[in-house]
Design brief:
7-stranded mixed beta sheet, 3-stranded antiparallel beta sheet, alpha+beta, 18 strands, 46% helix, single chain
Length: 671
């Protein structure tokens, strides 16, 4: 660690700018450019909250907030848009410099002093037993990397960008790109690939502009069809290679010219190489892939193999289902292939093809479409043909974007894509969000809330690449395995226990009756507005005791009224759902519902009868949750909107420590 005063940091950055921009050093040219550049970089530090400036650069606060602040300040002086963009680029480049060249900010002392993580020199390092991204070791040449980490006897720089480490991975030596005038410049002089980080270093983007080839000799970029994990040692500058993580291509998010490569691990166990085994060790023992999966992806490989063995033991049943699926779609494509569609009239398209497509989708995906609705989505025969051709044959758009951008809608696009693609590769995109979430849960994948359904489905494909055996399966067989795994994992999960059946039955009946009954005089006395107190309340219900008389559920009419007031007497599934006015009031009739059912009260330290857990529903939605099909989607919507409030009320976890996530909540409702 090293403490830097702001003037020192400015001086270091000034020298760095002159180092990478050699023409700035020429006599009589650009004499003040570096000074101006540094001054503009510190624009936010000079004109706003200095502590916030360092928090942006250290990653404690989102850099996007810094951009908003810059734009707000420049709006006051009526600065043009290109000027705002210029200042935003300066702070982006400065953060990259701090993270890459200095090792990142460890802590902030005050407005004028920060502590940086110093880069460790790897010149004299002979053998390492473990390497982490946080070590920030700088190796002058790629052969120093191989000698220190992988035990090879290398004395000259490799010409190629990768080296086989014999552990199921490649060692990759990409060069960091630099940003000039809003355009990336390749870090290597030999190839045109531009490599840069996104998502705080968790993603490397490797891209080539449309007008460029790979090497200046006409070679066009290609997308790997069998992604291989790669230990990435990024060349950050002159004589400066650093381990930045173990990465793997996200095939579905990538195109040949724009490849998305995601980090799956931030450390490498080098003990086998350090122990002196030669490079044939993994080939002889045939455990290279096993070592990679166990150590780098943090999966229990033996248990995973047991799951695969269990799944394959029923291969006749699963194989028959896949065979029937493939035969069905093959027959449809033979009857209505692109060549036939090309000769078809609009009348036949509307009168024959679309009704048959409806039937086919129902057979293959159990999805119901009305003929008229499907016709409206697909448009004319010409529009449909162009869309289908683009989806099947247009290479410049990733599979994710093809699904996202299709005018038919994501799920329908995936279904049609799967029917016409011989490999059925797109099948997983036809899954609904609840099914997708269950599969991600089974795989142990947790994604940020803002990730959309297509990206979630893409992660199912991405995970598939982590297992050599699964990678040989068809997508349909992999889908069957995910269904099997989700069911197995569901049995492994510890679920919240409900009350005994007789007690539960009585509580359910009482709660349903109370939820439907809100006295008119209580509505008349309702407050004009209400907001959560955001603090836990003591539990009052005692599930362990069954009184012989009276209610088991304490009645708090005021809490139900408060919940209705906060929802403005509307249905929280959709405020536009039809309802009616109460008999003696001008308020809409809606019913209250406890999202975490009260029969589970005995498992929680705090009461479930609190406004944070009470939702306002129209009669139709309320009854659908209790008795109807499709209730999972309603519960999911309510959970996503209420989970922070549940946490504030202290009911996001049971007394025994079981976290109430969507999987647990659906289980409480019997799913």
């Amino acid at each position: 660690m090293k403490t830097l005063e702001v003037s020192e940091l400015r001086s270091h950055y000034h020298d760095y700018l002159l180092e990478i921009n050699k023409n700035w050093n020429k006599v009589g040219t650009h004499t003040d450019t570096a000074n101006t550049w540094v001054s503009d970089t510190f624009y936010l530090w000079n004109n706003d909250d200095k502590k916030a400036y360092w928090e942006y650069l250290s990653g404690q606060r989102d850099l996007g907030e810094a951009h908003k602040t810059i734009r707000r300040l420049l709006d006051k002086v009526n600065a043009p848009e290109n000027r705002k963009e210029y200042y935003c680029q300066r702070i982006d480049e400065f953060k990259e410099y701090i993270d890459i060249r200095l090792g990142g900010i460890d802590s902030i002392i005050d407005d004028d002093h920060i502590v940086i993580r110093e880069v460790t020199s790897g010149t004299e390092i002979k053998k390492l037993r473990y390497i982490r991204t946080a070590d920030n070791i700088s190796f002058p040449y790629n052969f120093n990397v191989l000698n220190a980490c992988f035990g090879t006897n290398m004395t000259a720089t490799l010409r190629q960008a990768t080296w086989d480490s014999k552990d199921g991975c490649k060692v990759w030596f990409p060069h960091i790109a630099r940003l000039e005038g809003g355009r990336y410049i390749a870090g290597s002089t030999e190839v045109n690939w531009k490599n840069y980080f996104e998502d705080n270093g968790d993603t490397i983007i490797q891209m080539i502009y449309p007008e460029e080839d790979v090497d200046g000799n006409g070679r066009q970029p290609e997308l790997w069809t069998n992604p291989t994990p790669m230990h990435a040692f990024m060349k950050m500058g002159d004589k400066d290679y650093r381990y930045v993580g173990t990465f793997m291509l996200d095939y579905n998010s990538s195109t040949p010219r724009y490849q998305v490569i995601r980090r799956i691990k931030d450390g490498i166990d080098l003990s086998i190489w350090a122990a002196g085994y030669d490079t044939d060790y993994f080939e002889v023992s045939e455990i290279g892939r096993d070592v990679f999966k166990e150590l780098y992806i943090e999966k229990n490989f033996k248990k995973q193999k047991d799951y695969i063995t269990q799944f394959l033991s029923g291969k006749e049943e699963t194989g028959n289902a896949e065979k029937a699926f493939l035969l069905e779609k093959k027959a449809f494509v033979e009857k209505y292939g692109l060549a036939i569609l090309n000769k078809m009239s609009q009348e036949v398209f509307e009168g024959e093809y679309i009704p048959e497509l409806c039937k086919e989708i129902k057979k293959l995906f159990s999805a119901d479409y009305e003929v008229e609705a499907l016709s409206s989505k697909l448009g004319t025969l010409n529009e449909y043909g162009q869309g289908l051709t683009k989806m099947l044959y247009y290479p410049e758009e990733s599979i994710n974007d093809k699904i996202r951008n299709c005018s038919w809608g994501e799920v329908l696009a995936a279904q049609i894509f799967t029917i016409y693609d011989e490999t059925s590769f797109e099948y997983l995109y036809s899954l609904d969000e609840i099914t997708t979430d269950k599969m991600l849960y089974a795989l142990g994948i947790k994604l940020p809330e803002e990730v959309d359904l297509v990206q979630k489905q893409s992660w199912l494909y991405y995970w598939r690449n982590c297992d050599e055996e699964i990678l040989t399966w068809s997508i349909y067989k992999y889908y069957q395995f995910l269904c099997f795994l989700a069911n197995i994992k569901k049995k492994d999960v510890q679920y919240v226990s409900a009350a005994k059946p007789d007690v539960r039955k009585r509580i359910v009946a009482e709660v349903k009756k109370q939820d439907e009954e809100v006295a008119e005089d209580e509505i008349q006395d309702a407050p004009a507005s209400f907001e959560y107190e955001s603090k836990p309340r003591a539990r009052e219900i005692n599930i362990g005791n069954k009184p012989s008389k009276g209610s088991m559920v304490p009645r708090h009419a005021d809490r139900k009224i408060n919940a209705l007031v906060r929802a403005n007497y509307c249905c929280e599934i959709d405020k536009n759902h039809p309802t009616f006015k109460r008999r003696n009031s001008d308020k809409n009739y809606t019913e209250t519902h406890h999202l975490i059912p009260l029969e589970y009260s005995g498992q929680f330290q705090y009461t479930l009868d609190t406004e944070e857990n009470i939702v306002s529903l129209c009669s139709n939605c309320h009854n659908q949750i209790h008795y109807g099909a499709g209730a999972e989607a309603l519960i999911k919507k309510l959970y996503e909107e209420r989970k922070d409030a549940l946490k504030n009320a202290g009911i996001d976890v049971t007394e025994s420590g079981i976290e109430i996530d969507l999987e647990q909540l659906l289980h409480m409702y019997g799913f």
